Amino acid sequence: QDRWHYLHLHEHHCGMTAEAWDKVARSADVFLNVSGASMFPDNLNPRCIKVFLDTDPGYNQIVMATRPAWSENVDRWVQQVRQHDRHLTYAENLYGEDCILPRLEIDWRPTRCVVTMNPWEQLRQFPPPADAPFTTVMTWTYFKGPLIFNGVQYGAKAPEYDKFHDLPKRVKVPLALAVSGHTQPAEQIKADGWIQVDAKSASLTPQNYVDFIRDSAGEWSVAKNCYVATRSGWFSCRTACYLAAGRPAVVQETGWSRFLPSGEGLIAFSTMQEAIDGLHRVSDDPHRHRNAAWEIAREYLAPDRVLPPMLEAIYAPSPHPRQLPPAWASDLPARSAGQ
Fold it and tell me: Which of 72, 151, 153, 301 has the fewest CB atoms within 10 Å of its CB?
């Protein structure tokens, strides 16, 4: 509660005082800049390792490579990204032969999202209501302009939704979307059979978000087109929350199934039939899949599984070895299906 600081409009200090924050900055060993959303602290320890954490792979690399005119202050942003000492990325398949993301001569070091098990795992003792839908939360589109690389345009959620738009009419389980964004085709989504939820009310506060996932049978979701089409290996921090709550997830393949198990509790799909089959498998044996979902969160996404390899990657000399950390790869073949 007392270890946060927010500088509003470079004037107003919220949370910790400016003096307390400066003391933290002067003593810091690692500055982890999540999504590049922060400026370097004014009084940062000169020996501190500055780490850029790329949570939006595809978008970030393509913007850096093409510097589109619609991206405000893009040159300054690219310069700041390159000023970091280390570059982590959620593109876990970045060095796979099928991944087409530009690397920009940057020593990217793959990592993945992390989920705090508490309070999510407390939801395991609350089975979802009998009529609970599979849900997800998404932003329809947020790109300020076209994202084009090598003549191909990449999008956000809309292009992938279009591939599965009438899924509710093909399955025996209810499906709900909590969608934000002014460009969403609300009437079409309703006509396709989805239960519509206001995304703001579902996620405005941490407790709203916990309650929304608690009352879900599990998650069904597409990924952003720029994650899918580039075969980035990105995995959703939202899906990690569902899993930690003991809520199974049937989510779109980006290449992530090479690094996390797919088959029980967590199921990858690329086609309409795979999406249908995954939802029916979970709904036919929900207790089994709820237990498997939590086990995956515990073994692959919990802090003690993700953060030690992340710190090793931060402190490893350049160039960084590309192999998957053994702690993440353990037991994967035995727990995967269809790999």
Answer: 151
Rounded-to-integer distance, Cα 136 and Cα 178, Å: 6
Alpha helices in the chain (DSSP H): 18-27, 59-66, 74-82, 117-120, 158-163, 186-191, 199-203, 206-214, 225-228, 237-244, 272-284, 286-296, 303-315, 326-329, 332-335
DSSP at 323:
S
What's the mean per-residue pLDDT of the chain? 92
What is the C-alpha to C-alpha distance for residues 140 and 201, in angstroms, rounded to an integer? 16
pTM, 2 dp: 0.92
Sequential DSSP letters for 84-139: SSEEEES-TTTTSTT-----TT--EEE------HHHHGGGGGSPPPTTPPEE-EEE
Amino acid, res. 8 = H
Instruction: Report the C-alpha gap between 48 and 26 in whole angstroms.
Output: 9
Q: Cα 25 from chain centroid?
A: 27
Residues 6 or more apart from 256 whose CB is under 8 A from it? Answer: 92, 93, 233, 234, 235, 268
Looking at residue 226, its amino acid is: C
Separation of alpha carbons 10 and 41, rounded Å: 11
Digit-coded pLDDT (tens) for 261-300: 999 999 999 999 999 999 999 999 999 999 999 999 999 9
